[in-house]
Amino acid sequence: MSLESKIRRLPITIDPDPRRVLLRPFIPSLIVKPFSVPEPNPRVVSLFSRVMHMDEASVVAKLDEVFSDFLGRHGRLHDIFAERFEQVRHLLPTDQELTEPRRILLGSYFTNEYSLESTALFNPGIFPSPDQSGLQPGERRVILSLRATGEGHISSITFRCGILNSEANLRLDPVSRYVQQPRPQPAARYDLATFRRKLQELGVEFQAVGLATQGLAPGFLMSDLVNLVRRIRSGADEPGVKRAAERALLLAQSNYTVVFPEGLDISEKILFPYSQGEMNGIEDARFVPFIEDDGSTTYMATYTAYDGNVVLPQMVHTRDFREFSICTLNGPAIRNKGLALFPRKIHGQYAMLGRQDGENIHLMFSDHLHFWYESQVLIRPKHPWEFVQLGNCGSPIETDAGWLVITHGVGPMRKYCLGAVLLDLHDPSRVIGRLREPLLRPAPDEREGYVPNVVYSCGAMIHGPNLVLPYARSDTSSRIAIIPLADVIEGLTSRLG
């Protein structure tokens, strides 16, 4: 009997919900990317002029209409409009002091709703929640991370929460229709020595790094760097130093901390692109509860930042899913998509899987979590269903038999299937098991979608005797498969595939 016959698909489909909308900046005639800075254009000037010529009674009436129309769809609507006005105030063609209703109304004209999930909700990962209180025996509270994609194909990270019972049935919590972005932490500090090292890893010449960061304190603030870059831009520094300063600013913007308000449901929390390197989306977060040397747990995820041209591997850290720290990954081994961190150190080193050449699964080790210098090919395509490319589908899962790695393989007609390999616990460079046939193929009702014929996952987990495997259905929605772990291990160890 094949492993696929042992799969139980849960009667749950996690579909995109176009009602979940985020308030985003809007500039007439421009597509405002997450990091775009508003600049004056004729339509902006005309819009300001039309609002400025309204009498106060008309301003108040129109603002009342806006609140009546949108207040039930968003919290903090007044504050958001006020903040938006401050962001575009410099575009005003006058220094005239405005009444509060006029300021708030102007803020509403430069704001729009963005439907985060209007296109797709896919590439899920699953992991235990840090909160395991109030459960019945055999239950476990879990978090699902998903890639949400909306207008303009901009991707963000969203979450769902639920409870797995002893039979591995999943009960999802109600999903809030409200969504909210976190706020950047204003006083985040950067370590100068690490920062200079990262700049060199990005190819900036050593001397230019020193000149472009000269005068910064060992623990400097973003405002310190912004002031320094402004001076370099307007000064007589060499072009190489100016280029290094711009790269330093981009690097700092890609390393940041954000914090959500207290009391939000996890489904209300959205990690939306924040830095310039993410302006076209953040994709395929692979979360893993990482066990630190002191036994504590940090939830980490590798993800792909995309600015429309360059793919930039990033990492996010959180302990409480309220504060998230984002940083760049560096070194010659950090290339391409699909990086996945092991859930603990191995022989004192961090370990990670990747797909540096776009075709094979690689293994790498490092003494420093953010710097990776070498990788080795671990697994190459071997079977017809994976001839095009191989990649991981999330972090390796530790079992008594070895490290279980869920893989994806691409075959004829760019059809994606999921497979599995088993790595030695003490020496993960040694493959001790591999499935000959796919573990999961697209079912007949899973082949149609935004990208046809694709099943894909960003992380599975073990619950009791079962492997819980969430997966995307043709890059459109998400489902969950339950597979007896013993059968998976038997299939992997009965014969090396």
Give the arrangement of secondary structure elements:
Elements: E1 8-9, E2 21-25, H1 42-52, H2 56-70, H3 77-88, H4 100-109, E3 111-115, E4 120-128, E5 140-149, E6 155-164, E7 170-172, E8 183-184, E9 189-191, H5 192-201, H6 206-212, E10 219-221, H7 222-234, H8 239-253, E11 256-259, E12 282-291, E13 297-306, E14 311-318, E15 323-328, E16 340-341, E17 350-354, E18 361-366, E19 376-379, E20 389-392, E21 397-399, E22 402-410, E23 416-423, E24 431-434, E25 455-456, E26 461-463, E27 466-473, E28 477-484, H9 485-493
Describe the protein in words.
- The protein has 497 residues and is α+β, with helices and mostly antiparallel strands.
- The protein has three domains: 3-17 and 116-182 and 260-493, Tachylectin-2, Chain A, CATH 2.115.10; 24-115, no CATH class; 184-253.
- 21% of the residues lie in helices and 31% in strands.
- It contains nine helices and 28 strands.
- It has a six-stranded antiparallel beta sheet with strand order 8-11-15-14-13-12.
- A hairpin with a 4-residue loop joins strand 13 (297-306) and strand 14 (311-318).
- Helix 2 crosses helix 4 (100-109) and helix 6 (206-212) crosses helix 8 (239-253).
- The longest helix is centred in the first third of the chain and has 15 residues, at 56-70.
- The two termini are 16 Å apart.
- The mean pLDDT is 93.
